[in-house]
Design a protein that fits this description.
Pfam families: DNA_processg_A (PF02481), WHD_DprA (PF17782). The chain is built from 16 helices and 12 strands. By secondary structure, the chain is an alpha/beta fold. The protein folds into 3 domains: 75 residues, no CATH class; 180 residues, Rossmann fold (3-Layer(aba) Sandwich); 59 residues, Orthogonal Bundle (Arc Repressor Mutant, subunit A), CATH 1.10.10.10. About 2% of the residues have low confidence.
């Protein structure tokens, strides 16, 4: 788990109040990496960003936030902080107008530079829309594309679940601090993504779900992907923002048509009128991207034999009555994150049902 040189300086640069991304990039362009910025001195910095901004940068008290970020990073081998200029930094984001200076990543770091497709849509999706998102994500992930979305309810969740169920890769770009997963109903899904894929945030630890952060987060979903597929969307929605950003960034935009009577189809129909590519099958997307099916070799921590054994341990511990996740962890000996992955797979297979209050119940075999 290598660290960027002078990581504390990078954190100081991004945590200083009033020093936004544009100012950060001006400083990096003028002086080089963050340690060189802070070594430049007040007068040199002021010549680039002005005295007031320089004063804020040099006098901000970010020591506690920096310590918390460094402690978070040291909390596990799956925790990373990636900065501009790192080899692991997503190269696709360097093509957008305002790439983040720093990213917090939980999960598989290599996915930041794998070919990806974004699947987005309504939070208030229809059951058919969620199922469509799952099916497309499973097919496209099976073809070797990482599936990118925003961990929201509705279409986003369906896209992540479909990729995971197919044994594929998925990335979730979130609009909160990486330690503040939102919404709470997707906590189990987030745990599965952290184990099998990656969760990414540009926001400092502790950042709550502020409304303004989610549209801004969408530029990263669009920017890291080769294209954006919109499954369901109202005319006024964040999904159309993502599609608009994708078009501006030179990415492909795809949309699935729906019923003329459905409000959730109107956003897709608007995109189609504006030139988005109509999609009926996953092959439509693959052909437009000129993507030849490629299944990358994965270095998964769990073998097929171990996965089957873990599943049997879970089912034995679950029995046939409702059971909470904590109780399952204790009785099965599996970690909460591992349990979340298996439970999600069993739920998609129709063998387990999730109940209110974070409980699960085994379903009868059919």
């Amino acid at each position: 788990m290598s660290a960027p040189a002078g990581l504390a300086d990078w954190l100081q640069l991004t945590l200083a109040p009033g020093i936004g991304g544009e100012t950060q990039r001006r400083l990096l362009a003028a002086f080089g990496p963050a340690p060189a910025v802070f070594a430049a001195g007040h007068s040199a910095l002021a010549a680039v960003i002005g005295s007031a901004a320089t004063q804020r940068l040099l006098t901000s008290d970010s020591a506690a936030a920096i310590a918390a970020a460094l402690a978070w990073r040291e909390g596990g081998d799956d925790r990373h902080i990636v900065v501009l200029g790192d080899a692991d930094y997503p190269q696709a984001l360097l093509e957008i107008a305002d790439p983040p200076t720093l990213l917090y990543v939980r999960g598989r770091l290599e996915l930041l530079n794998r070919p990806a497709l974004a699947i987005v849509g309504s939070r208030n999706a229809t059951p058919a829309g969620e199922k469509t998102a799952e099916q497309f994500a499973a097919a496209l992930a099976g073809a070797g594309l990482s599936i990118v979305s925003g961990l929201a309810l509705g279409i986003d969740g369906g896209a992540h679940r479909g990729a995971l169920a197919a044994g594929g890769d998925t990335l979730a770009f979130i609009g909160t601090g990486i330690d503040r997963l939102y919404p709470a109903r997707n906590h189990a899904l987030a745990s599965a993504i952290a184990e099998q894929g990656a969760i990414v945030s540009e926001y400092p630890l502790g950042t709550p779900p502020l409304p303004a952060n989610f549209p801004r987060r969408n530029r990263l979903i669009a920017g890291i992907a080769r294209g954006v597929l919109v499954v369901e969307a109202a005319v006024e929605s964040g999904s159309l923002i993502t599609a608009k950003l994708a078009g501006e960034q030179g990415r492909e935009v795809f949309a699935i048509p729906g019923s003329i009577h459905s409000p959730q189809a109107r956003g897709c129909h608007q995109l189609l009128r504006q030139g988005a590519k109509l999609v009926e099958t996953a092959n439509d997307v693959l052909e437009e991207l000129a993507w030849h099916v490629h299944i990358p070799t994965r270095k998964g921590p769990v073998t097929a034999e171990a996965a089957d054994a873990d599943e049997q341990r879970l089912l034995a511990a679950l029995g046939h009555g409702p059971c909470a996740l904590d109780a399952l962890a204790q009785s099965s000996g599996l970690t909460a994150e591992r349990l979340s992955v298996i439970l999600l797979q069993l739920e998609l297979a129709g063998r387990v049902a999730s109940l209110p209050g974070g409980r699960y119940q085994r379903l009868p075999e059919t």
